Amino acid sequence: MTATMNLVMKLSGPTDPELVRSLLGGDKEALAELYRRRHGNVYRFALYMTGRPEIADDVAQETFMTLINNRAAYDETKGAVNSFLLGVARNQVLRRLRQERSTVPVDEHHEEIDKDVAVRGHLSSFVRKEKIDAVRKAVLSLPEHYREVVILCELQEMSYAETAQIMNCAVGTVRSRLHRARAILMEKLEPARDESPQSEAVNSKRCFA
């Protein structure tokens, strides 16, 4: 049994923690593989949070540089590599937003969000039926502490526990914020639902249940 499990592990490739250990030892191929696996999640989170591709690029680069340069930062006994990276990205994003403290532009640079949101997470069936532009603007207009739970739980499909770890808060906090965020989104998207057939509106509500 053990030999079979080892063979399966070899065929499926190294785990994320194994890649981290290798890259911290100077293995460039391990870094490239981890970047290939996890860059998309980090980039999308930053893009959803800010609506700015240039900031998302910077955040993704800074996140991986943090992992490389601060070897003591990641502790594999405390959680998954993906959660660690998203936690670092969250800190970077919030720092950027605090520095700017300006209205997030919602009318520019959103082709990447449009393409990705339409096929991801529990919101996907809702987005296919409603105006993607309205959903995008509604998410971006949420306060940061509500926006991030929607992005992590709904669009990134993270569990409550994983989201709580990333946000460094209690699971109950995640649940309550997500419940409130869903209510705000439904209220903001009410006009868009009214323009659709009633049957579609009923189905869209289930996406937030």
Could you say what the CATH topology of the largest domain is called?
Arc Repressor Mutant, subunit A
**Distance N to C terminus:** 42 Å
* Percent of residues in beta strands: under 5%
Structure summary, number of beta strands:
0
Instruction: Tell me the number of helical segments per DSSP (H or I, 4 or more residues long).
Output: 13
* Strand-pairing-aware structural class: mainly alpha
Low-confidence stretches: 1-9, 103-111, 197-209
The major β-sheet equals: none
Total domain count: 2
Percent of residues in helical segments? over 70%
**Overall 3D form:** globular
Mean pLDDT: 79
CATH superfamily of the largest domain: Winged helix-like DNA-binding domain superfamily/Winged helix DNA-binding domain
